[in-house]
């Protein structure tokens, strides 16, 4: 308990000592305010989907700027995003050079007036990042589907990445090979009981009941991973057996509407009921391919 008693300790020249201490304190405060404009980055986070990779951090700079450096674990630092006022830096170009490497990044803080600055800027290091393991899988997309008889054929889009090999961009399947697995969830449109099918190619050919409509969605995954295993599911698509009719019913009102609005824009006031509508009618009929639909359309004009 020496500190509380310290002021009472007899001292030969208390006034001088106090002045010195005060002076030292003032110097410290002045020094601190000089560098307090340079704030170190914190909360460095890798955001990476299908190898598109961005490093983010905080805070928004007020009176300083950032530069980012990146390096493979055993390589040299390379600077990116020089003296920026953003709080993110796209490092895709660097990490696609070798997606199986482990990278580290560093965010350096410089005063905004960089010309007067000499010395080593303060910095913060990111967590390590291994693209092959850490990049997330983008939402799966259905590329095409077809139901013929008792077969349903669904093809999943093989997403393109920015990874290059021999100068050509690689797809997700090129990069992950057999490590990538594809899942199809499907169900009869008239029920909710879901079934699942899995392949290691992006194409499904499954047996279905003839004449039934089916709905389905897809997902890609890397089962060997410990984290970030699965993409989010694609949106749902459904087959439709009365496709032609469906098209007619949905497209025709749209075309009639379009014909009316575009014509209205062109027509002169004096021939409001005139020729321009007539000119549009054949295109409506052509698209609808249905007499009923066309006569309905004509009545509307
Ligand atoms: C760090 O970032 C994450 C997401 O980017 C956010 O949820 C979290 O609140 C941040 N932490 C701090 C201390 O700001
Ligand atoms: C399934 O559809 C895809 C894309 O349309 C096609 O390339 C493929 O040959 C089809 N597979 C079968 C077995 O019909
Ligand atoms: C890339 O090019 C080299 C030689 O130029 C060739 O041996 C190799 O097979 C090529 N790889 C691919 C995946 O095309
Ligand atoms: C699958 O991933 C592991 C590491 O997670 C890797 O060692 C292996 O080469 C990969 N296989 C293919 C075919 O890409």
From TrEMBL:
<dbReference type="InterPro" id="IPR001187">
    <property type="entry name" value="Tissue_factor"/>
</dbReference>
<dbReference type="GO" id="GO:0031012">
    <property type="term" value="C:extracellular matrix"/>
</dbReference>
<dbReference type="GO" id="GO:0004896">
    <property type="term" value="F:cytokine receptor activity"/>
</dbReference>
<dbReference type="InterPro" id="IPR013783">
    <property type="entry name" value="Ig-like_fold"/>
</dbReference>
<dbReference type="GO" id="GO:0002543">
    <property type="term" value="P:activation of blood coagulation via clotting cascade"/>
</dbReference>
<dbReference type="GO" id="GO:0009897">
    <property type="term" value="C:external side of plasma membrane"/>
</dbReference>
<keyword id="KW-0325">Glycoprotein</keyword>
<dbReference type="GO" id="GO:0002541">
    <property type="term" value="P:activation of plasma proteins involved in acute inflammatory response"/>
</dbReference>
<keyword id="KW-0356">Hemostasis</keyword>
<comment type="function">
    <text>Initiates blood coagulation by forming a complex with circulating factor VII or VIIa. The [TF:VIIa] complex activates factors IX or X by specific limited proteolysis. TF plays a role in normal hemostasis by initiating the cell-surface assembly and propagation of the coagulation protease cascade.</text>
</comment>
<dbReference type="GO" id="GO:0007596">
    <property type="term" value="P:blood coagulation"/>
</dbReference>
<dbReference type="InterPro" id="IPR015373">
    <property type="entry name" value="Interferon/interleukin_rcp_dom"/>
</dbReference>
<dbReference type="GO" id="GO:0032008">
    <property type="term" value="P:positive regulation of TOR signaling"/>
</dbReference>
<feature type="domain" description="Fibronectin type-III">
    <location>
        <begin position="18"/>
        <end position="112"/>
    </location>
</feature>
<dbReference type="InterPro" id="IPR050650">
    <property type="entry name" value="Type-II_Cytokine-TF_Rcpt"/>
</dbReference>
<feature type="disulfide bond">
    <location>
        <begin position="81"/>
        <end position="89"/>
    </location>
</feature>
<dbReference type="InterPro" id="IPR003961">
    <property type="entry name" value="FN3_dom"/>
</dbReference>
<feature type="signal peptide">
    <location>
        <begin position="1"/>
        <end position="34"/>
    </location>
</feature>
<dbReference type="GO" id="GO:0002020">
    <property type="term" value="F:protease binding"/>
</dbReference>
<feature type="domain" description="Interferon/interleukin receptor">
    <location>
        <begin position="135"/>
        <end position="241"/>
    </location>
</feature>
<keyword id="KW-0094">Blood coagulation</keyword>
<dbReference type="GO" id="GO:0005543">
    <property type="term" value="F:phospholipid binding"/>
</dbReference>
<dbReference type="GO" id="GO:1905286">
    <property type="term" value="C:serine-type peptidase complex"/>
</dbReference>
<dbReference type="GO" id="GO:0050927">
    <property type="term" value="P:positive regulation of positive chemotaxis"/>
</dbReference>
<dbReference type="Pfam" id="PF01108">
    <property type="entry name" value="Tissue_fac"/>
</dbReference>
<keyword id="KW-0812">Transmembrane</keyword>
<protein>
    <recommendedName>
        <fullName>Tissue factor</fullName>
    </recommendedName>
</protein>
<dbReference type="GO" id="GO:2000353">
    <property type="term" value="P:positive regulation of endothelial cell apoptotic process"/>
</dbReference>
<dbReference type="InterPro" id="IPR036116">
    <property type="entry name" value="FN3_sf"/>
</dbReference>
<dbReference type="Pfam" id="PF09294">
    <property type="entry name" value="Interfer-bind"/>
</dbReference>
<dbReference type="GO" id="GO:0032757">
    <property type="term" value="P:positive regulation of interleukin-8 production"/>
</dbReference>
<feature type="disulfide bond">
    <location>
        <begin position="215"/>
        <end position="238"/>
    </location>
</feature>
<dbReference type="GO" id="GO:0001938">
    <property type="term" value="P:positive regulation of endothelial cell proliferation"/>
</dbReference>
<comment type="subunit">
    <text>Interacts with HSPE; the interaction, inhibited by heparin, promotes the generation of activated factor X and activates coagulation in the presence of activated factor VII.</text>
</comment>
<dbReference type="GO" id="GO:0010641">
    <property type="term" value="P:positive regulation of platelet-derived growth factor receptor signaling pathway"/>
</dbReference>
<keyword id="KW-0472">Membrane</keyword>
<keyword id="KW-0564">Palmitate</keyword>
<keyword id="KW-1015">Disulfide bond</keyword>
<keyword id="KW-0449">Lipoprotein</keyword>
<dbReference type="GO" id="GO:0005615">
    <property type="term" value="C:extracellular space"/>
</dbReference>
<dbReference type="GO" id="GO:0045766">
    <property type="term" value="P:positive regulation of angiogenesis"/>
</dbReference>
<keyword id="KW-0732">Signal</keyword>
């Amino acid at each position: 308990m020496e500190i509380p008693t310290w002021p009472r300790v007899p001292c030969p020249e208390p006034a001088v000592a106090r002045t010195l201490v005060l002076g030292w304190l003032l110097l410290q405060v002045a020094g601190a305010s000089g560098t307090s404009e340079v704030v170190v980055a914190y909360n460095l986070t890798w955001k990476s989907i299908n190898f598109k990779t961005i490093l983010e951090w905080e805070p928004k700079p007020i009176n300083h700027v950032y530069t980012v450096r990146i390096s493979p674990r055993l390589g040299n630092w390379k600077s990116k995003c020089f003296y920026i006022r953003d709080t993110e830096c796209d490092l895709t170009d660097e990490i696609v050079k070798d997606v199986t490497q482990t990278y580290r990044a560093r965010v350096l803080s410089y005063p905004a007036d960089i010309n007067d600055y000499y010395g080593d800027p303060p910095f913060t290091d990111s967590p390590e990042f291994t693209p092959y393991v850490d990049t997330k899988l983008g939402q799966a997309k259905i590329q095409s589907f077809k139901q013929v008889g008792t077969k349903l054929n669904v093809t999943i889009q093989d997403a393109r990445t920015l990874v290059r090999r021999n100068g050509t961009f690689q797809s997700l399947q090129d990069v992950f090979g057999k490590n990538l697995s594809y899942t199809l969830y499907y169900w009869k449109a008239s029920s909710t009981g879901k079934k699942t099918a899995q392949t290691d190619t992006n194409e499904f050919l499954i047996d279905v009941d003839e004449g039934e409509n089916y709905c389905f969605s897809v997902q890609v995954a890397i089962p060997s991973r410990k984290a970030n295993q699965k993409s989010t599911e694609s949106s749902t698509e459904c087959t439709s057996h009365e496709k032609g009719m469906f098209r007619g019913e949905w497209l025709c009102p749209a075309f009639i509407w379009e014909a009316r609005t575009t014509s209205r824009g062109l027509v002169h006031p004096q021939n409001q009921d005139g020729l321009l509508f007539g000119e549009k009618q054949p295109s409506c009929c052509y698209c609808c391919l249905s007499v009923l639909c066309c006569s309905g359309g004509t009545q509307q004009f």
